[in-house]
């Protein structure tokens, strides 16, 4: 009972026997494998441009035009003009449609001048008098 070695000879604690039994067997040397890979790469047709240049530039032109159009529309929608009257003064201004706004003291009005054709909206803070054109 003093001997605690396993009775089964197939168990090896170092793993050397396992590695010897399961070592991969190669049919080719490393140099042969590299030579075959190089030969396949050399035999493959050279990749050329996927699309001729005469077919690519219209896509770039269309993308650039779309980006310009979207950028212009976004600018027109987000650009805001603000007019304001200081304390003790009255200010009169024309809106894009020809309507007139007269701001009282400490008042402000803002609107989207490039989007006016779509929505005649004025955001007012304070007091104002409007002379609206139909």
What does this structure look like?
There is one protein chain. By secondary structure, the protein is of the alpha+beta class. Helices cover 34% and strands 18% of the residues. The chain contains 3 helices and 6 strands. It has helices at residues 16-21, 30-43, 53-78; strands at 81-84, 91-94, 100-103, 108-111, 122-125, 128-131. Strands 1-4-5 form a 3-stranded antiparallel β-sheet, with no helix packed on it. It is elongated. The mean pLDDT is 82.
End-to-end separation: 112 Å
In N-to-C order, the SSE pattern is HHHEEEEEE
Low-confidence stretches: none
> Strand sequence of the main sheet, in spatial order?
1-4-5
Return the structural class. Answer: alpha+beta
Q: Overall 3D geometry?
A: elongated
Topology:
Elements: H1 16-21, H2 30-43, H3 53-78, E1 81-84, E2 91-94, E3 100-103, E4 108-111, E5 122-125, E6 128-131
Antiparallel strand pairs: 1-4, 2-3, 3-6, 4-5
